[in-house]
Design a protein that fits this description.
Elements (H helix, E strand, L loop, with lengths): L2 H20 L4 E4 L4 H11 L9 E5 L1 H9 L9 E4 L5 H9 L4 E16 L6 E2 L1 H8 L2 E3 L5 E3 L5 H4 L10 E3 L5 H16 L3 H10 L15 E3 L4 H10 L4 E5 H6 L4 E3 L1 E2 L6 H5 L6 E9 L9 H9 L7 H4 L7 H13 L9
Length: 343
């Protein structure tokens, strides 16, 4: 090997090792949905006296995926959490910064539309839910217009005659991206004949329906899902969008809407009957493994708790089937580099 290559590699290693001296704990950020589960695993690892408890922060899936890809060095996070899978464009950003990752799926989660138990129980089709919350709907001339519906009953007379007011996550959120795709785009624009005709007439793609309303019917409430829970407890006429675990942990005061005939329960999400569900991931940076202490141990700590009888299941995460758990256990040990053809 040429001496200049050896020196370059040595310089990188020295830089990372020097930076690691300033940070002897794992830094994690990303999805607010993954946050409580990653925190449980971090606290379990903190019981090991050989390692400091990893620091887990929120910020949204976009923050997790972008943050782990921004660069190498301990000024950057080691692991990014996400409730929406990395896209090829996001991976290209990683590759441009010389970052190599391994993708690990940890479980599943349902997206719920919750409300106070003091309010009405919403029983709604996925199509009507998308129709109520998408920014654009078909107009009388066949094109798209700003969503005019004020009350749920304007969308469908069988729905409650109360204002549409839904608190939900911002654009950085994987929960929002997944909801907009599964409910607005596929549930409404992909199924409703009027919407499909308007799309064809306007030459639009269904993803135009992903945009959420900005007229007050949908209210961005930040990445702290506990704040949405609090809003619902204070306002029985409002609804909120977040991961199933937050409903599960607040089941004494909140109820989940029945969507297309199915309630958001642990069993119905696990067996695939509840249609608004998605996978949960984290992305670990190769260059920091062996430099920041405890990363490999943190990855293995997940596998101790993600089973059907584990503490993560108790907290509301839906476990992967055993075959998938074995697949990702192997990935944790072998750390395959994520490439575009895997996405």
């Amino acid at each position: 090997m040429r001496l200049d290559k050896i020196l370059v590699g040595t310089a990188v290693a020295v830089t990372l090792s020097t930076a690691a001296m300033a940070r002897d704990y794992i830094s994690i950020a990303g999805s607010s949905t993954v946050l409580p589960f990653a925190t449980i695993v971090a606290e379990a690892m903190g019981n090991n006296p050989n390692f400091k408890t990893p620091v887990v922060e929120s910020g949204g899936s976009s923050v997790g995926k972008k943050g782990v890809c921004e660069g190498i060095g301990t000024e950057f996070i080691d692991i990014g959490n996400a409730s929406s899978r990395m896209k090829t464009g996001e991976l290209e950003f990683c590759e441009a910064n010389g970052v190599k990752l391994t993708e690990i799926k940890v479980g599943y989660d349902g997206i719920v539309v919750a409300s106070s138990k003091d309010g009405v129980l919403l029983n709604i089709s996925k199509s009507d839910l998308g129709k109520a919350l998408t920014a654009k709907v078909p107009g009388p001339d066949g094109g798209f217009i700003d969503n005019p519906y004020k009350n749920w009953s304007d969308v469908n007379p069988d729905l409650p005659d109360i204002p549409i007011r839904v608190y939900g996550p911002p654009t950085t959120s994987g929960t929002r991206a997944s909801f907009a795709e599964m409910v607005n785009e596929k549930g409404y624009c992909g199924k409703d004949e009027t919407a499909k005709a308007a799309l064809e007439s306007a030459g639009e793609k269904a993803k135009v329906c992903r945009a959420m309303r900005t007229d007050g019917a949908y209210i961005e409430a930040g990445e702290q899902d506990n704040l949405i829970v609090q809003k619902l407890q204070e306002d029985p006429s409002a609804f909120g969008i977040f991961g199933f675990s937050y409903l599960d942990q607040n089941s004494d005061s909140l109820q989940g809407a029945i969507i297309s005939g199915t309630a958001p329960t642990f069993d119905l999400i696990a067996n695939g009957e509840y249609s608004v569900s998605r996978a949960l991931y984290f992305y670990v940076k190769h260059a920091h493994i062996g430099v920041v202490p405890g990363i490999e141990e943190f990855l293995m700590e997940w596998t101790k708790h993600w089973g059907e009888d584990g503490v993560l299941s108790d907290a509301g995460m839906i476990p992967m089937p055993e075959e998938e758990r074995e697949y990702y256990m192997k990935a944790i040990k072998e750390l395959p580099i994520l490439t575009a053809d895997m996405l």
